Predict the structure of Metal-dependent carboxypeptidase.
Amino acid sequence: MTKAYLSLERHFARLASLDDALGILSWDKEVMMPPGAAERRGENLAMLEGMRHDMLTAPHMADLLAEATAPADPWQSANLAEMRRQHTRATALPTDLVEARAQATARCEMIWRTARDTSDFASLRPALEDVLRLTREAAVAMGEVLGLSPYDALLDSFDPGTRQTDIDPVFATLRADLPNLIGTVLERQASLPAITPPHGPFPVARQEVLGRQLMRQLGFDMTRGRLDVSTHPFCGGATQDVRLTTRYDENDFIPAMMGVLHETGHALYDMGLPKAWLSQPVGQAGGMTLHESQSLLMEMQFCRSRAFADWLAPHVQAAFGITEGTPGWDGAALHRQLIHVEPGFIRVDADEVTYPAHILVRYELEKALIAGDLSIADLPSAFNDGIHSLLGLRVPDDRRGCMQDIHWPEGLFGYFPCYALGAMAAAQFRVAACTQVPGITPAIARGDFAPLLSWLRTNVHGRARSASMRQIVQDATGTPLDASAYLAHIHQRYVVGAADA
Amino acid sequence: MTKAYLSLERHFARLASLDDALGILSWDKEVMMPPGAAERRGENLAMLEGMRHDMLTAPHMADLLAEATAPADPWQSANLAEMRRQHTRATALPTDLVEARAQATARCEMIWRTARDTSDFASLRPALEDVLRLTREAAVAMGEVLGLSPYDALLDSFDPGTRQTDIDPVFATLRADLPNLIGTVLERQASLPAITPPHGPFPVARQEVLGRQLMRQLGFDMTRGRLDVSTHPFCGGATQDVRLTTRYDENDFIPAMMGVLHETGHALYDMGLPKAWLSQPVGQAGGMTLHESQSLLMEMQFCRSRAFADWLAPHVQAAFGITEGTPGWDGAALHRQLIHVEPGFIRVDADEVTYPAHILVRYELEKALIAGDLSIADLPSAFNDGIHSLLGLRVPDDRRGCMQDIHWPEGLFGYFPCYALGAMAAAQFRVAACTQVPGITPAIARGDFAPLLSWLRTNVHGRARSASMRQIVQDATGTPLDASAYLAHIHQRYVVGAADA
């Protein structure tokens, strides 16, 4: 182990402290900050990001990285590789381009926030064209440095090591099977007796108590994290201090409850990263696909299962003071609500059956945008055609079409596929975990997540960035990432209606 | 204006952003952070402080400061002087000494937290001796660089420009007059009918609503700040984002209410600093004495006046749902409670009459400790003698004696006098403001602080660090800082019982 490597560890530990500070300040911005502080906070965050960039790209960092030889320890070696990757990405783009892109996305996002409400695509278009132009420029430049295609260079920033060639076959299967599958699911659902959802009000204070109870049940350590409220739910914070948020609707407790379970999946990943490597690049979570797999594994795979619904029903009843035996409040009824499928326009509101369709549309479009095969002017109609071909719906306006998501206005191209890949990985992880550890399934039926969490700690969380997402999925499940486990899961839960799905 | 000066402004703006980050992270630590994150947060804060120190002491800063010539604009010129002051202080001490002192104070503070509860001075003594030894060493070294005596070098770190020679005559007057004054006040108080304090419970939620209402009444801008709960109340946060805290007792609403009014005084100062200079050294608040003068001006001078108590009483009644006309809840009764005087052992619980006695004792002792004329071993008995001679009380144990405050274990010598100087300045500011703007007094009787705030904006808040504390007091009041206004105020309110005191 070289002196240069040890020196790099110290430098990256300082960057990790700065990341922790940025994490808490960003959480505070969404959850605590008074509105009049927004402008100043924006400046503060930009300054800290700038300091972070300066520290990472300082000349002595390049010298140390050139000097360091790969340590024998595989984690140290992976750590050095990840340091090099982060340094290369940080230094790949000329400062002018970075700043121009930051300004263009900030401007576009601002326009989007008002133009979306009135479906005013014409107002958004010039700003979005700027963002796309500068993102393409950055993708080409980054790709040249990394030896990747422009789209792969973008993908790699959210999911290190993932390439378009990994995604295409997975998504091709989905594209082929999904429309028919959705049709079959809806047919069967229509044949079942109607659901009568329990009616509220469901006081926020009680929803909050229930949310915290479920977080603890899943294994969330309340001494190292918090639950709060924000407009857009997220999981953030810092190492050893994982903070999730939700938002409450007093007429329906299910969205907040499932949102908390989703974010708890993210949080358990962050809480399970190896302590010894918390301050180092290799100790970070392994990218967006793995992160999303962990939230979906909890929310979709386990917490919408019939067995968990049966365990959950009496706890929900107790939380809202419902008398035991009240019709419509048992596990069967709750389960019907949790697995209700309904094709719709809005991605973030979609059920797990129709969700991938939203991603397939966006994936094809953003590849075409980055390749220069699609113009922003043609985006709305191309988007609407895509939704129609996969979900059979006619998008009524751009607010519910290509303007619904913040990602593209923010310059986040290459991010969407991770959501669907995460759903695929979650299904694979569930099969593997429950096969390898037969005690997991009966434990979940008792509300006990400890055996599952133990498997995840070993096979996913504890590995951090010591291997690629693809490798971690392969090692944990014995097969490469593909759509088969996901499709089998949908078939079992929604077509067969298997009791253990 | 030189290029070097402009470059310095940019560097110091980055330091100000870092200070904002540290401010929010420190607030979060006391108010929001889950307990398991404490160790990591400690590391993060130390790392950011280290980065701040590195940035301030980087070689190019010295070069720029040497190169810069005083700009013609008086604020820019004061800004450059304050930059030089901060740089000189940061570079004055050898790193070894800074680190040894940081470790010694951290260790001593930790021991103090447990030893205090059992009055175990023997356990504290070695650690406190280390802190004193290293603080003296630092004071000597700092004093040599600054051309100041060791004690003045310490004073200057909390109150730029204030010297022992400014304090001694003020405190000599207090020392001569206070014991007799306290006796007279207590005699008169004993001659008045007994108070029957209203009894609770006073629900926290209602105390909180009342607190926020009073904050707004005084001029606190809720879009640029917050009120929360912490174990030790404070006013912190960042520029444009001023956050105060309090703690609640359901049996007595007065401590939290007066605490909020006190911290609001601090907050109004921070909110009133000149916007154009927020990111620069000259734009910061002008030291501890001025800061304390602002909290005491609100809490003690105005909010414990009879006129304000008369305005306040019906609002307090409404807050707690008390029927109008309930005996013991009118302005006269509330006022009696707000101005109750009782010599006691604990500084932070002291009323405004006996408070300076606590400071006089500490001031003499810490001067002697720094001069080497008093040993830590002799501190407890010297402390107890001091309290006896000024307050006539026999200190029963060190918990209620020299171990009650965190300041000395934390290495904060030279801090205490600012509290009493702040009380003197507050009395002077009140007289000056009410004389110069006759509308202030009748406005306060209507709960309207706007005319007062306007005077403070011009004469105190808006001046930031463009002049020394002494100069700001002199300019605002027409006289140098002294004890006369404070003593006259005590006499009017507590001996004469004047209606307008």
User: Anything to note?
Assistant: Residues 3-31 of chain A form the longest helix (29 residues). Strands of chain A lie at 225-229, 235-238, 241-246. The CA atoms of residues 1 and 71 of chain A lie 5 Å apart. Chain A is about 65% helix and 5% strand.
